Amino acid sequence: MKRSLRVFMIILCCFFLSGCWSSKEMSDLAFVTAVGISKDKEGKKYKVSLQVVNPGSVAGGQQASVQDAPVTIMSSTAVNPFEASRHVTSKMSRNLYYAHTNLIVIDEELARTKGLYELFDFIERSNQLRETATIVIAKGTSAENVIKNLTPIDRIPAVYVNKMLENAEDNGGQNIKVNVDEVLQKITSHGIEPIINGISIQGSAEEGSMQESIQGSDPKGKVEASGIAVFREGKLIDWVKGDNVHGILWSTNKVKDIVDSIDWENHKKAIALQTIRAKSKLNVKWKHGRPIILMNIETEGNINGVNVSVDLRDPQTIQKIERLWEKRIEQEVMKTVKRAKKDKSDIFGFGRTIYEHSPTKWKEVKDDWNVKGFTEVDVEVNVNAFIRRTGLRNQPFLSNPNR
Question: In DSSP terms, which residues pair with 261 in a beta bridge?
Answer without folding.
Answer: 272
